[in-house]
Design brief:
23 helices, Aminopeptidase, Glucose Oxidase, domain 1, about 725 residues, nine-stranded mixed β-sheet, binds zinc ion
């Protein structure tokens, strides 16, 4: 029965001309993964050609440009070309052995150049962390030596996440005077492992070697590859191999080159929700060709993701319009170390704070025809509910919780507080960074299952209001009620230039804005000038204003309270005249008294300002003077520990209590909020540590429910109060 239902559902989806079409996605992936694009290395001709190809595609299917009038965002980066490389061992039992560039060794992206002859020393995982009881060098002198480092970390007794990175190991190798570094990670060397710019050293050759070279190096050392690995799992064991290698690497820095993110947009249909963005991303780049002119096509990594989101974009353009805006980004420089996505996050062409969700696709074209998703928990309840619904679906799918770090373009988003989830095709990806990652190995089934799941989720996220479990969700919620002007962010830059696209009028509300009043007024003035000059009011601003019926009450502005004290009523009136009638105040300095003249206060009040009031000796008078426009901020713990009569007076005041939940509430804390659960208390998880917040949020929810709170109570406590409080829904 259920099966029939799903079959019908699938058939009906297939019959829609706009629905995601795996065959088309595969075709684009094969095209991008063909020799024509020379491995799509960022800053190289093949990479630029791929960017051009995607730009044309965006135009063809009707995506709007994502960086003002352009589809491109320039991304500065180090660009290198491999010129030549060779590796040989002079004194093996078989005599001199010259290894094969590609099969036996590869050159790291951003390796330096050099000709090195010297003895090879193995230094385990290359980790030096004496405070954690690990030193892989054990005093071994590696000055002038060629060192071998096995990627990874010992599996027992250590916690060395930060120390097992290539960058950390390289830093130590350089400090100790190694003349070259050879890494080993598997049977065949990966090609294109990138060295971060900060670790780049023009005269230090860096390569990867595979099993064959390492086995020769281990000859007569008493260790095989397997026994050496086991040994360094237990304890450090540096080994002088007695082997002499000749290693020659020549790379060339290509000056004045850079990569480009390609960005295309489908604007949402809902006048308010269109200001919230869903970023759909994949990296367009791969590792290019090696010095021998051998092309690494990266069909799975990540022509597959690029093709998949290209087809997803078409299905969004041609299908039922979504309420939220979808931003498609083909990132550059992922293989160079997430350079393109990191650049976007730091220099977003769109208001970063308005990103409701990020969906990343990396390696979605090979495997067993299933779909894996990780980080879905970052969507909070919404994510769990969706994951639950998937267990009933016909298509095989696995979901994984967020691991705290990430190895593709969603990671910089997550780090900055936007919920980024990652899709990949399930099953093995045996050709990772190998020559064999090529078009013929892509399979349509993988594209179909990942693509259909992604389409369904994208449509669901695109049309559903939910509070993503990223940082600052409460402020995000406030911002949803309004147009927000980010005066310290990228929307208006330091000199007051407005950088936004003409269609965007919404920016993130920073809770730590530090802009002086005069700057604020100047920036707002230039914002208004910009809007006038570009007739923004005819588009985004206007539709958002219409949604609220009144632009003036729709604009939030973040100003620290200290930025207001000492200002005149005229300042505030000027702001009000500029349409900034709702002023959100960040907590004041505890040492500073209210210090505001009656006129300023009146001006703020008539401007519809809210005040965020910390718990201190000024709380009571402030709450009294701000009345229903007071928002008291504290941690739940602090609140529960207050003198009970003071707590009761806050509870019976008109103020909203915004309480940070920093750990699962205990019974005293639960009792403290029980009387206020219907109106006055909002529990905020926005400031807790990211890795804590998910578990804490769920644990808190469970605890509250066990204490007799209903689902509706929870809704109020978790987000409903703000909506009610602001009276906009
Ligand atoms: Zn990739």
């Amino acid at each position: 029965m259920r099966r029939t239902f799903h079959l019908l559902l699938i058939l009906s989806l297939c019959s829609l001309a706009h629905a995601f079409d795996a065959a088309r996605a595969l075709e684009i992936a094969k095209k991008l993964g063909s020799d024509e694009f020379e491995g799509r290395r960022s800053g190289h001709p093949g990479g630029m050609k791929a960017e051009q190809y995607i730009e044309n595609y965006c135009k063809e299917i009707g995506l709007a440009p994502g960086n003002k009038e352009s589809y491109f965002q320039d991304v500065p980066m180090l660009v290198h070309k491999e010129v030549s490389a060779s590796l040989s061992i002079a004194n093996s039992e078989l005599g001199k052995i010259a290894f094969h560039h590609g099969l036996d060794f590869t050159v790291c992206t951003h390796s330096g150049s050099g000709y090195v002859q010297g003895e090879v020393v193995l230094v385990g995982h290359g980790i030096v962390a004496p405070e954690k009881g690990r030193d892989d060098y054990q005093g071994m002198d590696v000055k002038g030596k060629v060192i071998v480092i096995l990627r990874g970390q010992p599996t027992s007794n250590y916690s060395l996440e930060a120390e097992d990175t290539r960058g950390a190991a390289l830093k130590i190798a350089k400090e100790r005077g190694a003349s070259a570094v050879m890494w080993h990670s598997g049977a065949f060397p990966v090609n294109g492992a990138a060295i971060a710019e900060e670790h780049y050293h023009a005269e230090l050759p860096l390569i990867y070697i595979g099993d064959r070279a390492l086995q020769v190096l281990l000859e007569n050392t008493g260790k095989s590859l397997k026994t050496y690995k086991t040994a360094i799992d237990l304890a450090p064991m540096p080994i002088r191999t007695g082997k002499q290698v000749s290693l020659a690497v020549r790379t060339k820095e290509l000056k004045n080159r850079h990569g480009r993110n390609v960005i295309g947009i489908v604007y949402g249909s809902d006048p308010v929700m269109r200001n919230e963005l869903i970023v759909v991303g994949a990296h367009l780049d791969h590792v290019g060709e090696n010095a021998n002119g051998v092309i690494y096509n990266g069909a799975d990594d990540d022509a597959s993701g690029s093709g998949l989101i290209a087809e997803l974009a078409r299905s969004v353009v041609e299908g039922e319009p979504l309420k939220r805006t979808v931003v498609f980004i083909w990132f550059t420089g992922e293989e160079d170390g997430l350079i393109g996505s990191t650049h976007f996050v730091g220099n977003a062409t769109l208001p970063f704070g308005n990103i409701a969700a990020m969906m990343n696709f990396d390696m979605v074209g090979q495997g067993d025809g299933g779909c894996d998703i990780s980080n879905l928990d970052l969507f909070g309840d919404f994510g769990w509910d969706y994951a639950d619904s998937l267990h009933h679906a016909a298509s095989p799918i696995e979901t994984y919780a967020s691991s705290g770090d990430g190895s593709s373009d969603y990671a910089p988003f997550v780090e900055q507080g936007a919920p980024g989830i990652a899709f990949w095709s399930s099953g093995s990806h045996p050709f990772y960074h190998q020559l064999t990652d090529d078009g013929p190995w892509l399979n349509e089934e993988s594209f179909a299952s990942v693509g259909k799941q992604a389409e369904a989720l994208l449509r669901h996220v695109g049309n559903t209001q939910f509070v993503p479990a990223a940082r600052s969700d409460s402020l995000r919620l406030i911002s949803r009620q309004s147009i927000t002007v980010d005066v310290d962010g990228f929307f208006v830059d330091a000199v007051g230039t407005v950088k936004a696209s003409r269609d965007l009028t919404c920016a993130w509300l920073p809770h730590d804005a530090k802009t002086p009043m005069i700057d604020l007024i100047n920036r707002c003035a230039s914002l208004h000038e910009y809007c006038d000059a570009h007739q923004v009011a005819s588009k985004g601003l206007k539709s958002a204003a219409e949604a609220h019926g009144n632009l003036k009450r729709g604009v939030f502005l973040a100003i620290p309270e200290r930025g207001l004290t000492g200002r005149s009523a005229r300042d505030v009136a000027t702001l009000t005249k500029m349409g900034l009638s709702v002023v959100h105040l960040t907590p004041g300095d505890q040492a500073v008294k209210l210090g505001m003249s009656d006129q300023v206060f009146d001006a703020l009040e008539s401007a519809g300002a809210f005040a965020m009031i910390p718990l201190d000796y000024n709380t009571a008078p402030r709450v009294q003077s701000w009345g229903s426009r007071a928002i008291v901020t504290a941690s739940l713990k602090q609140f529960a520990e207050l003198d009970s009569s003071f707590r009761a007076s806050l509870m019976s005041s008109q103020a909203l209590l915004m309480l940070d939940v920093l750990s699962t509430p205990d019974s005293a804390q639960i009792e403290a909020i029980r009387p206020g659960r219907q109106r006055l208390v909002h529990l905020n998880f926005g400031e807790s540590y990211e890795d804590l917040r998910e578990t804490e949020q769920k644990a808190s929810m469970t605890t509250l429910m066990q204490a007799g709170f209903s689902r509706d109570d929870l809704f109020c406590l978790f987000n409903g109060n703000l909506r009610r409080y602001l009276g906009r829904e």
